[in-house]
Amino acid sequence: MIRAATRIAGMILTLVVSSFVIFAAMYAAPGDPVTFLIGNPENMTPERVAEVKAQYNLDQPLIVQYGLWASQAFMGNFGTSFQYHQPVAELMATRLPATLALVAMASVLFIVAGVGLGILSALRQGKRTDSTITAATTLAASVPSFVIGLLLVSIFSVQLGWFPVSGAGEGFLDRLHHLALPAVALAVGAVAIVSRVTRQSMVEQLSMDHVEAARSFGLAPAKLIRRHVLRNAWGPILTMVALVVASMLAGTVVVESVFGISGVGKLLVDAINTHDFPVVQAVLLYMVITYMVVTTLVDLVHPLLDPRIKAKDKKS
Amino acid sequence: MLLDIDNLSLTITTNGISHQILDKVSLSVDAGEVVGLVGESGSGKSTTARAVLKLYPETAAVGGSITVGGTEVLSASKDELHRVRSSEAALIHQDPRAALNPVRRIGDSLTERLVHVLGVSRADAAAAGLELLAAVGIRQPEERMRQYPHELSGGMLQRVVIAAALTGQPKLLLADEATSALDVTTQAEVLAILRDLQEQRGLGVLLITHDLHLAAAYCDRVYVMYRGQIVEELRGNDLFHGAQHEYTRRLLSAVPAIGHLPKTESRAS
Questions:
Q1: Is the pLDDT assigned to residue B268 strictly greater than 60?
Q2: A96, part of any domain
Q3: Looking at chain B, which residue has its C-alpha nearest residue A228?
Q4: What is the chain B residue with the closest CA to A310?
Q5: How many CA atoms lie within 13 A of A149 on its CB side?
Q6: What is the CA radius of gyration of chain B?
Q7: What ipTM was reported for this prediction?
Q8: pLDDT tens digit sequence for B133-167
Protein backbone atom coordinates (compact mmCIF):
# COMPACT_ATOMS: atom_id res chain seq x y z
CA MET A 1 0.00 0.00 0.00
CA ILE A 2 2.71 2.46 1.07
CA ARG A 3 4.67 1.48 -2.00
CA ALA A 4 1.72 2.26 -4.25
CA ALA A 5 1.20 5.60 -2.49
CA THR A 6 4.82 6.74 -2.83
CA ARG A 7 4.72 5.60 -6.42
CA ILE A 8 1.63 7.70 -7.19
CA ALA A 9 3.06 10.70 -5.30
CA GLY A 10 6.21 10.36 -7.38
CA MET A 11 4.20 10.31 -10.59
CA ILE A 12 2.27 13.42 -9.60
CA LEU A 13 5.49 15.26 -8.76
CA THR A 14 6.98 14.24 -12.12
CA LEU A 15 3.86 15.48 -13.87
CA VAL A 16 3.89 18.83 -12.07
CA VAL A 17 7.57 19.47 -12.73
CA SER A 18 7.50 18.34 -16.35
CA SER A 19 4.29 20.20 -17.14
CA PHE A 20 5.77 23.39 -15.69
CA VAL A 21 8.93 22.95 -17.74
CA ILE A 22 6.83 22.37 -20.84
CA PHE A 23 4.71 25.41 -20.14
CA ALA A 24 7.61 27.69 -19.30
CA ALA A 25 9.68 26.53 -22.25
CA MET A 26 6.93 27.67 -24.61
CA TYR A 27 7.24 31.18 -23.30
CA ALA A 28 10.99 31.15 -23.48
CA ALA A 29 10.79 30.11 -27.13
CA PRO A 30 11.38 32.76 -29.79
CA GLY A 31 8.33 34.20 -31.53
CA ASP A 32 5.41 36.08 -30.11
CA PRO A 33 2.07 34.30 -29.96
CA VAL A 34 0.22 37.61 -30.03
CA THR A 35 1.59 38.41 -33.45
CA PHE A 36 0.44 35.04 -34.71
CA LEU A 37 -2.98 35.33 -33.07
CA ILE A 38 -3.69 38.67 -34.66
CA GLY A 39 -2.41 37.48 -37.98
CA ASN A 40 -2.68 40.46 -40.32
CA PRO A 41 0.07 42.99 -39.35
CA GLU A 42 -2.26 45.85 -40.22
CA ASN A 43 -4.45 44.97 -37.22
CA MET A 44 -1.54 45.29 -34.76
CA THR A 45 -3.00 48.23 -32.87
CA PRO A 46 -2.21 48.56 -29.15
CA GLU A 47 -5.89 48.07 -28.34
CA ARG A 48 -6.10 44.86 -30.34
CA VAL A 49 -2.88 43.55 -28.73
CA ALA A 50 -4.24 44.24 -25.24
CA GLU A 51 -7.54 42.61 -26.13
CA VAL A 52 -5.88 39.42 -27.43
CA LYS A 53 -3.53 39.31 -24.45
CA ALA A 54 -6.48 39.55 -22.06
CA GLN A 55 -8.44 36.90 -23.99
CA TYR A 56 -5.62 34.36 -23.80
CA ASN A 57 -4.43 35.43 -20.32
CA LEU A 58 -1.11 36.47 -21.84
CA ASP A 59 -1.05 39.60 -19.67
CA GLN A 60 -0.81 37.55 -16.46
CA PRO A 61 2.50 36.55 -14.77
CA LEU A 62 3.91 33.20 -15.95
CA ILE A 63 3.10 31.36 -12.74
CA VAL A 64 -0.53 32.49 -12.84
CA GLN A 65 -0.81 31.48 -16.48
CA TYR A 66 0.62 28.09 -15.58
CA GLY A 67 -1.87 27.73 -12.73
CA LEU A 68 -4.79 28.56 -14.99
CA TRP A 69 -3.58 26.20 -17.70
CA ALA A 70 -2.74 23.33 -15.34
CA SER A 71 -6.07 23.47 -13.51
CA GLN A 72 -7.92 23.45 -16.81
CA ALA A 73 -5.68 20.66 -18.19
CA PHE A 74 -6.42 18.62 -15.10
CA MET A 75 -10.11 18.80 -16.02
CA GLY A 76 -9.28 17.64 -19.54
CA ASN A 77 -9.47 21.11 -21.07
CA PHE A 78 -6.25 21.96 -22.88
CA GLY A 79 -7.50 25.24 -24.29
CA THR A 80 -8.23 26.19 -27.84
CA SER A 81 -5.83 25.84 -30.72
CA PHE A 82 -4.56 29.22 -31.94
CA GLN A 83 -4.52 27.90 -35.47
CA TYR A 84 -7.60 25.74 -35.80
CA HIS A 85 -9.78 27.54 -33.22
CA GLN A 86 -10.87 24.09 -32.02
CA PRO A 87 -10.51 22.61 -28.54
CA VAL A 88 -7.06 20.95 -28.30
CA ALA A 89 -8.55 17.83 -26.72
CA GLU A 90 -10.73 17.32 -29.79
CA LEU A 91 -7.76 17.77 -32.12
CA MET A 92 -5.78 15.21 -30.14
CA ALA A 93 -8.69 12.78 -30.17
CA THR A 94 -8.88 12.86 -33.96
CA ARG A 95 -5.12 12.43 -34.36
CA LEU A 96 -4.39 9.80 -31.70
CA PRO A 97 -5.97 6.70 -33.32
CA ALA A 98 -3.66 6.84 -36.35
CA THR A 99 -0.55 7.24 -34.18
CA LEU A 100 -1.57 4.54 -31.73
CA ALA A 101 -2.37 2.12 -34.57
CA LEU A 102 1.00 2.90 -36.18
CA VAL A 103 2.92 2.35 -32.96
CA ALA A 104 0.98 -0.84 -32.19
CA MET A 105 1.79 -2.30 -35.60
CA ALA A 106 5.43 -1.25 -35.42
CA SER A 107 5.68 -2.76 -31.91
CA VAL A 108 4.33 -6.11 -33.02
CA LEU A 109 6.83 -6.10 -35.89
CA PHE A 110 9.91 -5.13 -33.93
CA ILE A 111 9.10 -7.39 -30.97
CA VAL A 112 8.55 -10.47 -33.13
CA ALA A 113 11.56 -9.77 -35.37
CA GLY A 114 13.83 -8.50 -32.60
CA VAL A 115 13.16 -11.25 -30.09
CA GLY A 116 13.17 -13.90 -32.83
CA LEU A 117 16.50 -12.80 -34.27
CA GLY A 118 17.91 -12.39 -30.75
CA ILE A 119 17.01 -15.98 -29.86
CA LEU A 120 18.51 -17.27 -33.09
CA SER A 121 21.63 -15.21 -32.48
CA ALA A 122 22.04 -16.52 -28.92
CA LEU A 123 21.61 -20.13 -29.99
CA ARG A 124 24.14 -19.73 -32.82
CA GLN A 125 26.45 -17.72 -30.59
CA GLY A 126 29.78 -17.02 -32.24
CA LYS A 127 28.76 -18.68 -35.48
CA ARG A 128 28.11 -17.13 -38.87
CA THR A 129 24.36 -16.72 -38.32
CA ASP A 130 25.08 -14.73 -35.17
CA SER A 131 27.48 -12.29 -36.83
CA THR A 132 25.25 -11.97 -39.91
CA ILE A 133 22.26 -11.01 -37.75
CA THR A 134 24.34 -8.51 -35.80
CA ALA A 135 25.74 -6.94 -38.97
CA ALA A 136 22.38 -6.80 -40.77
CA THR A 137 20.40 -5.33 -37.87
CA THR A 138 23.10 -2.79 -37.06
CA LEU A 139 23.24 -1.72 -40.69
CA ALA A 140 19.46 -1.40 -40.81
CA ALA A 141 19.44 0.58 -37.58
CA SER A 142 21.98 3.06 -38.87
CA VAL A 143 19.81 4.08 -41.82
CA PRO A 144 17.49 6.98 -40.84
CA SER A 145 13.83 6.01 -40.77
CA PHE A 146 12.83 8.59 -43.39
CA VAL A 147 15.31 7.06 -45.84
CA ILE A 148 13.87 3.61 -45.17
CA GLY A 149 10.40 5.10 -45.55
CA LEU A 150 11.21 6.67 -48.91
CA LEU A 151 12.85 3.44 -50.10
CA LEU A 152 9.81 1.40 -49.09
CA VAL A 153 7.47 3.84 -50.82
CA SER A 154 9.48 3.85 -54.03
CA ILE A 155 9.69 0.07 -54.18
CA PHE A 156 6.41 -1.22 -52.78
CA SER A 157 4.07 1.68 -53.51
CA VAL A 158 5.35 3.32 -56.67
CA GLN A 159 7.00 0.43 -58.56
CA LEU A 160 5.06 -2.59 -57.35
CA GLY A 161 1.90 -0.75 -56.37
CA TRP A 162 1.20 -3.09 -53.45
CA PHE A 163 0.68 -0.43 -50.81
CA PRO A 164 -0.83 3.07 -50.80
CA VAL A 165 1.64 5.97 -50.90
CA SER A 166 0.17 7.95 -48.04
CA GLY A 167 -2.66 8.31 -45.56
CA ALA A 168 -3.77 6.28 -42.57
CA GLY A 169 -6.78 4.50 -44.07
CA GLU A 170 -10.31 3.94 -42.77
CA GLY A 171 -11.56 0.81 -41.06
CA PHE A 172 -9.42 -2.01 -39.70
CA LEU A 173 -8.18 -3.78 -42.84
CA ASP A 174 -7.68 -0.60 -44.82
CA ARG A 175 -5.74 0.84 -41.89
CA LEU A 176 -3.50 -2.25 -41.73
CA HIS A 177 -2.88 -1.90 -45.45
CA HIS A 178 -2.09 1.81 -45.18
CA LEU A 179 0.10 1.58 -42.11
CA ALA A 180 2.12 -1.50 -43.12
CA LEU A 181 5.00 0.40 -44.73
CA PRO A 182 5.14 3.19 -42.11
CA ALA A 183 5.14 0.55 -39.37
CA VAL A 184 8.05 -1.25 -41.03
CA ALA A 185 9.96 2.03 -41.36
CA LEU A 186 9.35 2.80 -37.70
CA ALA A 187 10.23 -0.71 -36.50
CA VAL A 188 13.49 -1.32 -38.39
CA GLY A 189 15.71 0.69 -36.02
CA ALA A 190 14.29 -1.01 -32.95
CA VAL A 191 14.94 -4.54 -34.23
CA ALA A 192 18.68 -4.11 -33.72
CA ILE A 193 18.30 -2.92 -30.11
CA VAL A 194 15.82 -5.60 -29.11
CA SER A 195 17.72 -8.43 -30.79
CA ARG A 196 20.96 -7.36 -29.07
CA VAL A 197 19.31 -7.25 -25.65
CA THR A 198 17.58 -10.60 -26.24
CA ARG A 199 20.83 -12.20 -27.34
CA GLN A 200 22.82 -10.79 -24.44
CA SER A 201 20.24 -11.71 -21.85
CA MET A 202 19.95 -15.26 -23.18
CA VAL A 203 23.70 -15.79 -23.45
CA GLU A 204 23.96 -14.76 -19.81
CA GLN A 205 21.33 -17.33 -18.84
CA LEU A 206 22.87 -20.09 -20.97
CA SER A 207 25.93 -20.24 -18.72
CA MET A 208 23.85 -20.68 -15.55
CA ASP A 209 24.09 -23.82 -13.44
CA HIS A 210 20.37 -24.51 -13.57
CA VAL A 211 20.59 -24.70 -17.36
CA GLU A 212 23.38 -27.27 -17.14
CA ALA A 213 21.44 -29.09 -14.43
CA ALA A 214 18.39 -29.31 -16.67
CA ARG A 215 20.55 -30.54 -19.53
CA SER A 216 22.16 -33.10 -17.22
CA PHE A 217 18.83 -34.78 -16.58
CA GLY A 218 17.89 -34.92 -20.21
CA LEU A 219 15.51 -32.00 -20.75
CA ALA A 220 14.96 -31.64 -24.50
CA PRO A 221 16.80 -28.65 -26.04
CA ALA A 222 13.61 -26.82 -27.05
CA LYS A 223 12.17 -27.13 -23.55
CA LEU A 224 15.51 -26.22 -22.04
CA ILE A 225 15.57 -22.96 -23.98
CA ARG A 226 11.94 -22.16 -23.24
CA ARG A 227 11.84 -23.07 -19.56
CA HIS A 228 15.33 -22.15 -18.40
CA VAL A 229 16.85 -19.66 -20.81
CA LEU A 230 14.16 -17.55 -22.44
CA ARG A 231 11.90 -17.63 -19.39
CA ASN A 232 14.70 -16.17 -17.27
CA ALA A 233 15.84 -13.73 -19.94
CA TRP A 234 12.55 -11.82 -20.25
CA GLY A 235 13.35 -9.11 -17.66
CA PRO A 236 15.83 -6.99 -19.63
CA ILE A 237 13.98 -7.72 -22.88
CA LEU A 238 10.70 -6.40 -21.46
CA THR A 239 12.38 -3.26 -20.11
CA MET A 240 13.98 -2.50 -23.45
CA VAL A 241 10.80 -3.19 -25.42
CA ALA A 242 8.84 -0.87 -23.15
CA LEU A 243 11.37 1.93 -23.49
CA VAL A 244 11.36 1.60 -27.26
CA VAL A 245 7.55 1.58 -27.40
CA ALA A 246 7.39 4.64 -25.16
CA SER A 247 9.86 6.54 -27.31
CA MET A 248 7.96 5.47 -30.43
CA LEU A 249 4.75 6.94 -29.03
CA ALA A 250 6.61 10.23 -28.81
CA GLY A 251 8.69 9.81 -31.93
CA THR A 252 6.42 9.12 -34.86
CA VAL A 253 6.97 12.62 -36.28
CA VAL A 254 9.35 11.71 -39.07
CA VAL A 255 7.53 8.63 -40.29
CA GLU A 256 4.17 10.40 -40.15
CA SER A 257 5.58 13.22 -42.27
CA VAL A 258 7.07 10.87 -44.85
CA PHE A 259 3.85 8.88 -45.25
CA GLY A 260 1.45 11.80 -44.90
CA ILE A 261 -0.32 10.36 -41.89
CA SER A 262 -2.13 12.95 -39.82
CA GLY A 263 -1.18 11.64 -36.39
CA VAL A 264 0.01 13.25 -33.22
CA GLY A 265 3.57 13.64 -34.46
CA LYS A 266 2.49 15.64 -37.47
CA LEU A 267 0.20 17.69 -35.25
CA LEU A 268 3.18 18.59 -33.06
CA VAL A 269 5.40 19.66 -35.95
CA ASP A 270 2.65 21.80 -37.47
CA ALA A 271 1.89 23.35 -34.10
CA ILE A 272 5.53 24.23 -33.49
CA ASN A 273 5.81 25.83 -36.91
CA THR A 274 2.75 27.98 -36.31
CA HIS A 275 3.44 28.86 -32.66
CA ASP A 276 0.25 27.07 -31.70
CA PHE A 277 1.27 26.89 -28.04
CA PRO A 278 -1.77 25.12 -26.53
CA VAL A 279 -1.37 22.26 -29.00
CA VAL A 280 2.39 21.96 -28.44
CA GLN A 281 1.87 21.89 -24.68
CA ALA A 282 -0.84 19.26 -24.88
CA VAL A 283 1.16 17.00 -27.18
CA LEU A 284 4.28 17.24 -25.02
CA LEU A 285 2.23 16.50 -21.93
CA TYR A 286 0.75 13.48 -23.70
CA MET A 287 4.29 12.24 -24.39
CA VAL A 288 5.31 12.62 -20.75
CA ILE A 289 2.20 10.77 -19.60
CA THR A 290 2.59 7.89 -22.05
CA TYR A 291 6.20 7.47 -20.97
CA MET A 292 5.14 7.37 -17.34
CA VAL A 293 2.30 4.93 -17.99
CA VAL A 294 4.52 2.55 -19.98
CA THR A 295 7.36 2.53 -17.43
CA THR A 296 4.88 2.05 -14.56
CA LEU A 297 3.31 -0.89 -16.36
CA VAL A 298 6.74 -2.46 -16.78
CA ASP A 299 7.48 -2.05 -13.08
CA LEU A 300 4.22 -3.79 -12.28
CA VAL A 301 4.92 -6.69 -14.64
CA HIS A 302 8.52 -7.32 -13.50
CA PRO A 303 7.66 -9.05 -10.20
CA LEU A 304 5.47 -11.47 -12.15
CA LEU A 305 8.48 -12.45 -14.25
CA ASP A 306 10.92 -12.69 -11.37
CA PRO A 307 9.59 -13.47 -7.88
CA ARG A 308 12.85 -12.23 -6.34
CA ILE A 309 11.92 -8.62 -7.17
CA LYS A 310 8.78 -8.80 -5.07
CA ALA A 311 10.79 -10.12 -2.13
CA LYS A 312 13.27 -7.28 -2.42
CA ASP A 313 10.47 -4.72 -2.39
CA LYS A 314 8.92 -6.25 0.70
CA LYS A 315 12.18 -6.01 2.59
CA SER A 316 12.88 -2.42 1.68
CA MET B 1 30.49 -52.15 -12.29
CA LEU B 2 27.96 -49.34 -12.16
CA LEU B 3 30.35 -46.70 -13.49
CA ASP B 4 33.49 -47.57 -15.35
CA ILE B 5 35.75 -44.89 -16.72
CA ASP B 6 38.61 -46.25 -18.75
CA ASN B 7 41.52 -44.21 -20.09
CA LEU B 8 39.41 -41.08 -20.46
CA SER B 9 41.25 -38.22 -22.13
CA LEU B 10 39.75 -34.85 -22.93
CA THR B 11 41.37 -32.00 -24.81
CA ILE B 12 39.88 -28.58 -25.47
CA THR B 13 41.31 -26.35 -28.14
CA THR B 14 40.72 -22.62 -27.84
CA ASN B 15 42.27 -20.11 -30.23
CA GLY B 16 44.54 -22.78 -31.64
CA ILE B 17 46.00 -23.75 -28.26
CA SER B 18 45.23 -27.24 -26.97
CA HIS B 19 44.62 -27.81 -23.30
CA GLN B 20 44.62 -31.37 -22.09
CA ILE B 21 42.09 -31.36 -19.27
CA LEU B 22 41.98 -35.11 -18.61
CA ASP B 23 44.83 -37.53 -19.22
CA LYS B 24 44.00 -41.26 -19.22
CA VAL B 25 41.64 -41.12 -16.28
CA SER B 26 40.43 -44.54 -15.11
CA LEU B 27 38.12 -45.06 -12.20
CA SER B 28 35.15 -47.16 -11.21
CA VAL B 29 32.18 -46.99 -8.86
CA ASP B 30 30.24 -50.09 -7.87
CA ALA B 31 26.61 -50.20 -6.79
CA GLY B 32 26.28 -49.31 -3.09
CA GLU B 33 29.76 -47.82 -3.00
CA VAL B 34 30.81 -44.28 -2.08
CA VAL B 35 33.90 -43.29 -4.00
CA GLY B 36 35.75 -40.04 -3.41
CA LEU B 37 37.52 -37.96 -6.02
CA VAL B 38 39.86 -35.43 -4.42
CA GLY B 39 42.32 -32.92 -5.76
CA GLU B 40 42.95 -29.21 -6.04
CA SER B 41 40.83 -26.79 -8.09
CA GLY B 42 41.39 -27.26 -11.80
CA SER B 43 42.66 -30.82 -11.46
CA GLY B 44 39.79 -32.13 -13.62
CA LYS B 45 37.42 -33.57 -10.98
CA SER B 46 34.33 -31.74 -12.20
CA THR B 47 35.18 -32.34 -15.83
CA THR B 48 35.39 -36.07 -15.11
CA ALA B 49 31.98 -36.11 -13.43
CA ARG B 50 30.38 -34.08 -16.20
CA ALA B 51 31.87 -36.30 -18.88
CA VAL B 52 29.89 -39.19 -17.39
CA LEU B 53 26.73 -37.40 -18.61
CA LYS B 54 28.48 -36.23 -21.78
CA LEU B 55 28.39 -32.65 -20.58
CA TYR B 56 31.39 -31.14 -22.28
CA PRO B 57 31.76 -28.62 -25.11
CA GLU B 58 31.11 -29.94 -28.62
CA THR B 59 34.60 -28.85 -29.58
CA ALA B 60 36.30 -31.10 -27.00
CA ALA B 61 38.32 -34.05 -28.30
CA VAL B 62 37.51 -37.06 -26.15
CA GLY B 63 39.17 -40.49 -26.01
CA GLY B 64 38.72 -43.61 -23.94
CA SER B 65 35.43 -44.95 -22.68
CA ILE B 66 32.80 -44.37 -20.02
CA THR B 67 30.18 -47.02 -19.23
CA VAL B 68 27.22 -46.35 -17.00
CA GLY B 69 25.20 -49.46 -16.14
CA GLY B 70 26.52 -51.18 -19.26
CA THR B 71 25.85 -48.28 -21.63
CA GLU B 72 28.85 -46.76 -23.36
CA VAL B 73 28.16 -43.04 -22.94
CA LEU B 74 30.65 -41.48 -25.34
CA SER B 75 29.31 -43.37 -28.35
CA ALA B 76 25.72 -43.58 -27.09
CA SER B 77 22.78 -42.90 -29.38
CA LYS B 78 20.45 -40.04 -28.54
CA ASP B 79 17.97 -42.37 -26.86
CA GLU B 80 20.62 -44.18 -24.84
CA LEU B 81 22.14 -40.91 -23.66
CA HIS B 82 18.67 -39.66 -22.78
CA ARG B 83 18.08 -42.77 -20.68
CA VAL B 84 21.41 -42.42 -18.88
CA ARG B 85 20.78 -38.75 -18.13
CA SER B 86 17.17 -39.10 -17.09
CA SER B 87 17.18 -42.30 -15.08
CA GLU B 88 20.64 -43.87 -14.66
CA ALA B 89 22.85 -41.15 -13.23
CA ALA B 90 22.18 -37.77 -11.65
CA LEU B 91 24.51 -34.81 -11.12
CA ILE B 92 24.28 -32.73 -7.95
CA HIS B 93 25.76 -29.25 -8.29
CA GLN B 94 27.85 -27.43 -5.75
CA ASP B 95 25.70 -24.35 -5.27
CA PRO B 96 22.02 -25.26 -4.84
CA ARG B 97 20.98 -21.63 -5.24
CA ALA B 98 22.45 -21.60 -8.74
CA ALA B 99 21.31 -25.11 -9.60
CA LEU B 100 17.63 -24.29 -9.15
CA ASN B 101 15.89 -21.94 -11.54
CA PRO B 102 15.24 -18.81 -9.42
CA VAL B 103 12.01 -17.90 -11.20
CA ARG B 104 10.35 -21.29 -10.79
CA ARG B 105 8.68 -22.75 -7.75
CA ILE B 106 10.43 -25.51 -5.79
CA GLY B 107 7.71 -27.97 -6.78
CA ASP B 108 8.18 -27.14 -10.44
CA SER B 109 11.96 -27.66 -10.32
CA LEU B 110 11.56 -30.80 -8.23
CA THR B 111 9.18 -32.50 -10.63
CA GLU B 112 10.66 -31.14 -13.86
CA ARG B 113 12.53 -34.35 -14.66
CA LEU B 114 9.43 -36.47 -14.09
CA VAL B 115 6.94 -34.25 -15.91
CA HIS B 116 9.02 -32.88 -18.76
CA VAL B 117 11.53 -35.65 -19.37
CA LEU B 118 9.92 -38.88 -18.26
CA GLY B 119 6.33 -37.93 -19.14
CA VAL B 120 4.80 -38.63 -15.72
CA SER B 121 1.48 -36.87 -15.01
CA ARG B 122 1.67 -33.75 -12.86
CA ALA B 123 -0.34 -35.28 -10.06
CA ASP B 124 1.84 -38.41 -9.87
CA ALA B 125 5.01 -36.32 -10.10
CA ALA B 126 3.82 -34.07 -7.27
CA ALA B 127 3.08 -37.10 -5.10
CA ALA B 128 6.54 -38.54 -5.82
CA GLY B 129 8.10 -35.14 -5.14
CA LEU B 130 6.37 -34.81 -1.77
CA GLU B 131 7.55 -38.27 -0.79
CA LEU B 132 11.14 -37.43 -1.69
CA LEU B 133 11.04 -34.10 0.15
CA ALA B 134 9.97 -35.99 3.24
CA ALA B 135 12.78 -38.51 2.62
CA VAL B 136 15.40 -35.74 2.64
CA GLY B 137 13.98 -34.44 5.90
CA ILE B 138 12.03 -31.41 4.76
CA ARG B 139 9.09 -30.52 6.96
CA GLN B 140 5.86 -29.08 5.54
CA PRO B 141 6.73 -30.28 2.05
CA GLU B 142 3.42 -29.07 0.55
CA GLU B 143 4.23 -25.52 1.55
CA ARG B 144 7.83 -25.77 0.33
CA MET B 145 6.62 -26.94 -3.09
CA ARG B 146 4.86 -23.61 -3.56
CA GLN B 147 7.84 -21.49 -2.48
CA TYR B 148 10.61 -20.00 -4.58
CA PRO B 149 14.32 -20.79 -4.09
CA HIS B 150 15.08 -17.38 -2.58
CA GLU B 151 12.65 -18.11 0.25
CA LEU B 152 14.61 -21.17 1.45
CA SER B 153 17.97 -21.60 3.18
CA GLY B 154 20.99 -23.10 1.43
CA GLY B 155 20.79 -26.35 3.37
CA MET B 156 17.11 -26.70 2.56
CA LEU B 157 17.81 -26.02 -1.11
CA GLN B 158 20.54 -28.64 -1.31
CA ARG B 159 18.09 -31.18 0.11
CA VAL B 160 15.65 -30.15 -2.61
CA VAL B 161 18.39 -30.62 -5.21
CA ILE B 162 19.17 -34.09 -3.83
CA ALA B 163 15.46 -34.97 -3.85
CA ALA B 164 15.22 -33.71 -7.44
CA ALA B 165 18.22 -35.84 -8.41
CA LEU B 166 16.44 -38.91 -7.04
CA THR B 167 13.19 -38.35 -8.97
CA GLY B 168 14.44 -40.41 -11.90
CA GLN B 169 15.43 -43.24 -9.52
CA PRO B 170 19.06 -43.22 -10.65
CA LYS B 171 21.56 -45.82 -9.55
CA LEU B 172 24.50 -43.44 -9.65
CA LEU B 173 24.89 -40.02 -8.03
CA LEU B 174 27.62 -37.64 -9.13
CA ALA B 175 27.96 -35.22 -6.24
CA ASP B 176 30.16 -32.33 -7.36
CA GLU B 177 31.22 -30.56 -4.16
CA ALA B 178 27.62 -31.04 -3.13
CA THR B 179 28.11 -29.73 0.39
CA SER B 180 30.97 -27.25 -0.06
CA ALA B 181 28.67 -24.23 -0.27
CA LEU B 182 27.02 -25.06 3.06
CA ASP B 183 28.06 -24.18 6.60
CA VAL B 184 29.60 -26.97 8.66
CA THR B 185 26.50 -27.99 10.64
CA THR B 186 24.27 -28.03 7.59
CA GLN B 187 26.95 -29.88 5.68
CA ALA B 188 26.93 -32.65 8.29
CA GLU B 189 23.13 -32.90 8.12
CA VAL B 190 23.05 -33.07 4.35
CA LEU B 191 25.84 -35.64 4.28
CA ALA B 192 23.96 -37.79 6.80
CA ILE B 193 20.83 -37.64 4.66
CA LEU B 194 22.85 -38.50 1.58
CA ARG B 195 24.41 -41.46 3.41
CA ASP B 196 20.97 -42.75 4.51
CA LEU B 197 19.55 -42.50 1.02
CA GLN B 198 22.64 -44.13 -0.44
CA GLU B 199 22.33 -47.09 1.92
CA GLN B 200 18.57 -47.47 1.55
CA ARG B 201 18.67 -47.37 -2.22
CA GLY B 202 22.00 -49.06 -2.75
CA LEU B 203 23.24 -46.09 -4.74
CA GLY B 204 26.70 -45.73 -6.14
CA VAL B 205 28.07 -42.26 -5.31
CA LEU B 206 31.00 -40.44 -6.86
CA LEU B 207 31.74 -37.76 -4.29
CA ILE B 208 33.89 -34.95 -5.57
CA THR B 209 35.43 -32.89 -2.82
CA HIS B 210 38.50 -30.94 -1.84
CA ASP B 211 37.83 -31.74 1.83
CA LEU B 212 40.26 -34.57 2.62
CA HIS B 213 38.86 -35.22 6.09
CA LEU B 214 35.43 -35.63 4.60
CA ALA B 215 36.74 -37.95 1.89
CA ALA B 216 38.60 -40.09 4.43
CA ALA B 217 35.60 -40.39 6.72
CA TYR B 218 32.87 -40.73 4.16
CA CYS B 219 34.25 -42.73 1.26
CA ASP B 220 34.98 -46.40 0.79
CA ARG B 221 37.67 -45.62 -1.74
CA VAL B 222 39.33 -42.36 -2.73
CA TYR B 223 40.99 -41.38 -6.01
CA VAL B 224 43.49 -38.53 -5.88
CA MET B 225 43.57 -36.39 -8.98
CA TYR B 226 46.32 -34.01 -10.07
CA ARG B 227 46.61 -32.11 -13.33
CA GLY B 228 44.10 -34.26 -15.15
CA GLN B 229 45.53 -37.56 -14.00
CA ILE B 230 44.57 -40.03 -11.31
CA VAL B 231 47.78 -40.26 -9.30
CA GLU B 232 46.68 -42.59 -6.53
CA GLU B 233 43.85 -44.79 -5.38
CA LEU B 234 43.42 -45.48 -1.66
CA ARG B 235 40.92 -46.90 0.76
CA GLY B 236 39.15 -44.10 2.61
CA ASN B 237 40.62 -45.20 5.94
CA ASP B 238 44.13 -45.21 4.53
CA LEU B 239 43.99 -41.74 2.99
CA PHE B 240 45.90 -39.98 5.78
CA HIS B 241 48.41 -42.71 6.50
CA GLY B 242 48.77 -44.91 3.47
CA ALA B 243 49.50 -42.29 0.80
CA GLN B 244 52.44 -43.23 -1.43
CA HIS B 245 52.40 -40.57 -4.10
CA GLU B 246 54.34 -37.39 -3.55
CA TYR B 247 51.41 -35.16 -4.56
CA THR B 248 48.98 -36.87 -2.17
CA ARG B 249 51.42 -36.34 0.69
CA ARG B 250 51.82 -32.68 -0.15
CA LEU B 251 48.05 -32.33 -0.37
CA LEU B 252 47.62 -34.01 3.00
CA SER B 253 50.26 -31.86 4.65
CA ALA B 254 48.39 -28.77 3.43
CA VAL B 255 45.32 -29.72 5.45
CA PRO B 256 45.03 -27.48 8.49
CA ALA B 257 44.49 -29.29 11.78
CA ILE B 258 43.41 -27.84 15.09
CA GLY B 259 46.42 -26.49 17.01
CA HIS B 260 48.93 -25.93 14.24
CA LEU B 261 49.15 -24.30 10.87
CA PRO B 262 50.16 -26.26 7.79
CA LYS B 263 53.76 -25.85 6.73
CA THR B 264 54.14 -23.95 3.50
CA GLU B 265 57.22 -22.41 1.98
CA SER B 266 55.58 -19.04 1.47
CA ARG B 267 54.50 -18.52 5.05
CA ALA B 268 57.35 -17.62 7.39
CA SER B 269 55.41 -17.81 10.64
A1: no
A2: no
A3: B101
A4: B150
A5: 22
A6: 19
A7: 0.83
A8: 988 888 898 899 999 999 998 888 988 999 999 99
